[in-house]
């Protein structure tokens, strides 16, 4: 995904602590309550235009490095957490992490299997055991997703962290033998006719048992 520099620059507004009513009014105005944290500094609360942020995320991805502008101050930041409403999935609050472009940072990157449909087409069962992979690297080098080709996998195959080729400058401290994907034959379900026959045998045995008690 190509990162669009202009869309990474977003103006923010300082925000004082607010009541629930104030937060609700803020969201009605198209703004999101947000905060940014940095090592050794107090967390800064601010508001950000929801549509502008969502558009930038769509264009640049979740691992993009944003330039949040507050007056003359510019914060280089990465998205750390997004809080959603449990039912409507409406975005409620976003948290950013202030980063140094020249210092390595850690991030959990989503794992994306490529060719999963090819495995399923073989009538095989495909399981994904890890959704994200913790990685370390310079902020500008961290990918939005870790794409892994699984189209070649057959029944009995396991793909582990050691099998993943990470982009240059990116590393992970996850155990190399940790399994990410497995492929197996589908479970064989008992035929309905066989189940019906088994139930019939049980039913036939019950009268015989009752006759034995009468004798």
What's this entry about, in short?
This protein has 215 residues and is an alpha+beta fold. 25% of the residues lie in helices and 39% in strands. The chain has helices at 5-8, 20-28, 50-60, 116-121, 192-214, and strands at 9-14, 31-38, 41-49, 65-70, 73-84, 91-98, 105-114, 125-128, 132-137, 145-149, 158-160, 179-184.
Describe this structure in words.
- The chain has helices at residues 5-8, 20-28, 50-60, 116-121, 192-214, and strands at 9-14, 31-38, 41-49, 65-70, 73-84, 91-98, 105-114, 125-128, 132-137, 145-149, 158-160, 179-184.
- It is of the alpha+beta class.
- It has two domains: 5-99, Ribosomal Protein L25, Chain P (Beta Barrel); 106-184, Ribosomal protein L25, C-terminal domain (RNA Polymerase Alpha Subunit, Chain A, domain 2).
- The radius of gyration is 27 Å and the shape is elongated.
- The mean pLDDT is 87.
CATH topology description of the largest domain: Ribosomal Protein L25, Chain P
Rg over CA atoms, rounded to whole Å, is: 27 Å
Please give the count of helices.
5
CATH superfamily of the largest domain, called what?
Answer: Ribosomal Protein L25, Chain P
The total count of strands amounts to 12
Percent range for β-strand residues: 35-45%
Order of helices and strands: HEHEEHEEEEHEEEEEH
Mean pLDDT: 87
| Spatial arrangement of strands, main beta sheet | 1-3-2-6-5-4
Question: What top-tier CATH class of the largest domain fits best?
Answer: Mainly Beta
Alpha-carbon distance between the two ends: 82 Å
CATH architecture annotation name of the largest domain: Beta Barrel
> Unreliable segments (pLDDT under 50, ≥5 consecutive)?
none
Biggest sheet, open or closed, and with what strands and sense?
6 strands, mixed, barrel
Share of helix among residues? Answer: 10-25%
Computed structural class: alpha+beta
User: How many discrete domains?
Assistant: 2
Coarse shape: elongated
């Amino acid at each position: 995904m190509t990162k669009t520099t202009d869309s990474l620059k977003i103006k923010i507004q300082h925000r004082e602590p607010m009541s629930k009513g104030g937060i609700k009014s803020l969201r009605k105005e198209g703004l999101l309550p947000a905060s940014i944290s940095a090592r050794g500094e107090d967390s800064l609360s601010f508001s950000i235009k929801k549509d502008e942020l969502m558009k930038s995320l769509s264009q640049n991805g979740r691992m993009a490095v944003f330039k949040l502008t507050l007056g003359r101050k510019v914060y280089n930041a990465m998205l750390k957490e997004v809080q959603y409403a449990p039912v409507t999935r409406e975005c409620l609050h976003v948290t950013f992490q202030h980063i140094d472009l020249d210092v390595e940072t850690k991030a959990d990157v989503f794992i994306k299997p490529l060719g999963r449909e090819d495995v399923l087409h073989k009538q095989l069962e495909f399981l994904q055991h890890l959704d994200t992979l913790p990685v370390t690297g310079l902020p500008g080098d961290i990918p939005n997703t870790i794409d892994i080709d699984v189209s070649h996998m057959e029944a009995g195959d396991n793909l582990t962290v050691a099998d993943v080729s990470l982009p240059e400058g990116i590393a992970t401290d996850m155990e190399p033998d940790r399994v990410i994907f497995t492929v197996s034959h589908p479970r064989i379900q008992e035929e309905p006719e066989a189940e019906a026959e088994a139930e019939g045998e049980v039913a036939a045995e019950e009268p015989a048992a009752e006759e034995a008690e009468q004798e």
